[in-house]
Design brief:
Blueprint (H helix, E strand, L loop, with lengths): L1 H10 L19 H12 L11 E6 L4 E6 L11 H14 L33 H4 L28 E5 L5 E8 L3 H14 L30 H4 L14 H5 L9 H4 L11 H11 L2
Antiparallel strand pairs: 1-2, 1-4, 3-4
Helix pairs in contact: 1-2, 1-9, 2-5, 2-9
Length: 284
Amino acid sequence: MATGVILMALGTAGTASADSRDNGCEKLPGYASLKAALIAARSASNGGFNLDMWGAIVNRDGIVCAVAFTGSERGSQWPGSRVIAAQKANTANAFSLPGLALSSANLWAPVQPGGSLYGLQASNPVDTATSYKGPSRDYGTGFDPLIGNKIGGINVFGGGLALYNRQHELVGGLGVSGDTSCADHNIAWRTRNNLHLDYVPAGVSGDAARPDNINYQGIAATDTLANDFSHPICKIAGDDKVSAISANLPPIPEPTRSEKAGQSQKVGRASDQEILQTVKNRLP
């Protein structure tokens, strides 16, 4: 079932849509690639309620480049999560740098009362006129009215990740929403990995193989950077089904010898065909 949906999604890659390269999105995947990567990521065990998801991509200027969902239609996942996904993408992009990535999950602890970033979540409001304009039938399609617009917003729980291409260039952000915030993070991580946009330089997790991973309170050691940028465990009926999954998410790519020497000939963005092959290989 998932394989068929992915093939259909990528079969539309060459068709016209609002996510054309006219919006400054030429360095990022479009609708079809995002949908395929998101469906494959949602199909894995992610420690949540196994719900359908929304995903969104913004470029470095915060302009929405693509929006997609995993279910059979837009009502198959929480309608409110469409804007939250875009908000998470904006957050990760807005607070990551070429040399340091912060996931939206990393911001949970420092924005709490008394924290070093308290009040951050109110600093860049969502543009509500952009969020809800246009016909609802276009939401989550290649013609989503968010595309080409700045959504704004700051979200401080799991599901937002910065995007770094093979040339280690920060090109935007990815947001995922629709389940627990911890499962959202895991799905976003796998989606980014499927898109080959996880060449992350550094972060605050303390894990060099997963620099901007979620740091769980009660697991991260006290008096560490990871604890300063930590996030609650999303337990279900008191049971932690998620932290072990997060700890074993795919590591960021090892740089090749040519990349270390600055001689890599690979383009920054993976092709739709490469993404298709990746997600087909990773479907359970």
